[in-house]
UniProtKB/TrEMBL annotation:
<keyword id="KW-0406">Ion transport</keyword>
<keyword id="KW-0472">Membrane</keyword>
<keyword id="KW-0496">Mitochondrion</keyword>
<dbReference type="Pfam" id="PF05405">
    <property type="entry name" value="Mt_ATP-synt_B"/>
</dbReference>
<dbReference type="GO" id="GO:0031966">
    <property type="term" value="C:mitochondrial membrane"/>
</dbReference>
<keyword id="KW-0812">Transmembrane</keyword>
<keyword id="KW-0813">Transport</keyword>
<protein>
    <submittedName>
        <fullName>ATP synthase F0 subunit beta</fullName>
    </submittedName>
</protein>
<keyword id="KW-1133">Transmembrane helix</keyword>
<dbReference type="InterPro" id="IPR008688">
    <property type="entry name" value="ATP_synth_Bsub_B/MI25"/>
</dbReference>
<feature type="transmembrane region" description="Helical">
    <location>
        <begin position="7"/>
        <end position="26"/>
    </location>
</feature>
<dbReference type="GO" id="GO:0015078">
    <property type="term" value="F:proton transmembrane transporter activity"/>
</dbReference>
<keyword id="KW-0375">Hydrogen ion transport</keyword>
<dbReference type="GO" id="GO:0045259">
    <property type="term" value="C:proton-transporting ATP synthase complex"/>
</dbReference>
<feature type="transmembrane region" description="Helical">
    <location>
        <begin position="32"/>
        <end position="50"/>
    </location>
</feature>
<keyword id="KW-0138">CF(0)</keyword>
<dbReference type="GO" id="GO:0015986">
    <property type="term" value="P:proton motive force-driven ATP synthesis"/>
</dbReference>
Amino acid sequence: MFSNKKITPYIFVFLAFSVISSKHIIIYNEEILVSLSFLFFVIFVSFYFGDTIKESLDERKKLIESELQNFLNLKKESYKTLFKIHEKAFLSYNIITNLIDFTTLKVKTKKAGSLTALRNIFKQEINTKLKNLSYSNFNLKSKLMKFFSDILLTAVLMKNQNSVSRQIKKTRAFTLISKTVK
């Protein structure tokens, strides 16, 4: 049951303890008794329950390793997902930047085109107004010329009529005078 190899260390420890106690190297007080009790408890538990504790700790180790591996896998997957999201965000940023540049260019082009078109429309409107004004000016000139010609004709006729009527008056006056003289 007991072999010499297993008992020898216990005998050596017991003899060493006895010698140290007898020489008063170890003084027995509360702290020493508690320390010795704890030491013997640890030795007893490891001797009789060492395999059970080892199996329990090994199971716990495997459980912790699997949880750690799951955590690392989840972390790796989340990093991959975050990287994909970052790539999409960066791509979206580039697309939006290109879209803004394109839109700005198109707006400038349309603005320049619309300014040219607006200038052309403005020129056409001004030309139309000027033509209408010149046509109305021509009508006004022709009306003024007709009016002045009518006035001139009337004035000439009036003057002519006045001179005729004077002559008639002179002739009448002359005839009257000649009648009266006769």
